[in-house]
Design goal:
Radius of gyration: 20 Å
Structural class: mainly alpha
Largest sheet: none
Strand content: under 5%
Helix content: over 70%
Length: 131
């Protein structure tokens, strides 16, 4: 019983330390840097490893920080930006679906269409007709 109590105390201490580490201002700055990088370079397909290497964090540590700060994973954020840009291109850019997908960094049209529908509730071609 004493051993279990001690283990629980240690786990609680580790969790408190992890929570404080994630709240560090440096982490918010790193997340902000990556958010801006992805938004400005939405047509590039950065891997999580590349992103973490750019800012000098380990992959597992930064993924935890990014999700804690933003509520979503790096890949989810990257895909959200790409799909929003594609939607804008379809609506305002005089592009067809293939052109929009390629401009935002998708080479696989089937994957693009599935992801687009999952995130917007519509097929890209339906959105094109609405615009």
């Amino acid at each position: 019983m004493k051993c279990q109590s001690r283990i629980i105390d240690i786990i609680c201490l580790l969790l408190r330390h992890a929570e404080q580490t994630i709240r560090h201002p440096r982490h918010y700055q790193a997340v902000d840097t990556i958010v801006n990088l992805i938004a400005e370079n939405y047509s590039k397909n950065y891997s999580v490893d590349e992103i973490c290497q750019m800012i000098g964090y380990s992959t597992s540590h930064f993924q935890l920080i990014f999700k804690k700060v933003t509520g979503i994973t790096i890949i989810q954020y990257q895909n959200e930006i790409k799909i929003k840009k594609a939607r804008d291109l379809l609506q305002y850019g005089n592009c067809n679906v293939t052109e929009a997908a390629l401009q935002v960094g998708f080479n696989d049209m089937n994957y693009f269409s599935r992801l687009y529908k999952k995130m917007t509730g519509h097929n890209p071609s339906e959105y094109l007709k609405r615009g």
